[in-house]
Every structure is written in structure tokens, then in C-alpha cells.
Amino acid sequence: MKSDQLLALSESAIRYNFFLLDYCQTSISALSGCTAGILGLTGLYGFVFYFICSILMSFVMVAFIGKNKSDYFLSTQSLFTSSIWSGLQTYLLFWTFLYGMVHVY
Question: Is 40 helix (H, G, I), strand (E, B) or coil?
């Protein structure tokens, strides 16, 4: 693309893409939290497991989108960092609940 051309983006489409990205990240956070709780991961191993699952999900999204990431998101970095901290809260909820249900009771 030449530097003198304008790029037209739909704000509603970009918001919807971020909504879907957040939905996928929340789902992965819940599933990985359940998995970590059932496996009995504790401490640092549990947090490392979350970050590995989150990064893998981001790579799957990048592979699914393909070469033209700028058509769907404003920056590629947002695919990796947009919902990592909100997903961590979901992960902690499911991780501690399932760990307690399986290994404590």
C-alpha cells in the first residue's frame, strides 16, 4: 500500500473482532483453569501453565487469521496482550475451584 492512500476501517467490525478475541481468551482461561485444577498444579507451575495456554491460543488465532492481520485488528500485538490479565482472573477462579473440588474434598 502506498503512503498517500487512506485505509478505511470499520469501527464496529474491529470492536466485534476484539469481542470475539476476548470471548476466545475467556474460554481458554476457563478451560485451562479447569485442567490445571484437575491436574493438581500448584504455585508457579499453575501460572506458567496459564501463560503457555494463553500464548498458544494467540498463535492459533494468528494462524487462523493468516497474512492479513491488519485487516482485522489495529495491531498484531493486541492479539497477544489484549485479554491476558482479565483472562487471568477467570483462570484463577476455575483453577482454585476445581483444585478444591478434586484434591481437597
Answer: coil
What is each CA distance from 56 to 13, 60, 79, in whole angstroms? 24, 6, 11
For residue 93, the tally of other CB atoms under 10 A from its CB is: 14
Alpha-carbon distance 57 to 70, whole Å?
18
Instruction: Name which of 81, 75, 16 is nearest 54 in CA terms.
Output: 81
The predicted structure's pLDDT at residue 4: 62
Query: Which tens digit of pLDDT belongs to each residue from 78-101?
Result: 777 877 888 899 999 999 999 999
Residues 1 and 26: beta-carbon distance below 8 Å = no
Give me the amino acid identity at 101: M
Give pTM, 2 decimals.
0.81
Contact 84, 25 (CB under 8 A): yes
Kindly report, residue by residue over 48-79, the tens digit of the pLDDT: 999 999 999 888 888 888 887 777 777 778 77
